[in-house]
Amino acid sequence: MIDVTLTVNGVARSGTVERRRTLADFLREDLGLTGTHLGCEHGVCGSCTVLVDGTSVRSCLMLAAQANGLEVTTIEGLAGVDGLHPLQQAFRETLAFQCGYCTPGFVMTAVELLRENPSPSEREIREAISGNLCRCTGYESIVRGIALAAELAR
Q: How many CB atoms lie within 10 A of CB 76?
């Protein structure tokens, strides 16, 4: 067992975890942040994507112990007191989801994209989300949602 302390969505959080416990399991089971979804648990689908120190990571592949002392942002940490994060709002407006299971991973991936490239082309959006899988939408509405968020932020 190992003690971990990390900042999750702006709040210091601590716990004692098995050394092999994933960050995804720590977030979901220990902290109750179930917006981080587990799909493949092999890092392929992107449903578990969170930001660690601002960089998108697959939380199913990262150990909770590796996040010790770091800042983690989950989908629950995006919305502010004024309402939804612009990406969440844009996904809502463009209906960039069907079942919604993959949506948190796409949003977290897009947060990093738009921070690094506030005006991405459609090709750049598609490239950025190429590591996230969706079985429902065909990606068109997701690309439109990210493009709308970029437009609204300008």
A: 16
* pLDDT at residue number 138: 80
Residue 41: CB atoms within 10 A of its CB come to 15
Report pLDDT digits (tens) over 19-57. 999 999 999 999 999 999 998 888 889 999 999 999 999
Q: How far apart are CA 25 and CA 133, in angstroms?
A: 20
3-state secondary structure the chain: CEEEEEEECCEEEEEEECCCCEHHHHHHHHCCCCCCCCCCCCCCCCCCEEEECCEEEECCCCEHHHHCCCEEECHHHCCECCECCHHHHHHHHCCCCCCCCCHHHHHHHHHHHHHHCCCCCHHHHHHHCCCCCCCCCCCHHHHHHHHHHHHHHC
Task: Note the pLDDT of residue 47.
Answer: 94
Query: Can you read off the two tokens belonging to residue 94?
Result: 């463009």
- Render pLDDT for 52-85 as a digit per residue (tens, 0 to 9): 999 999 999 999 999 999 999 999 999 888 888 9
The tokens for 96 are 């960039």
Identity of the residue numbered 79? A
Strands 11-17 and 2-8: antiparallel
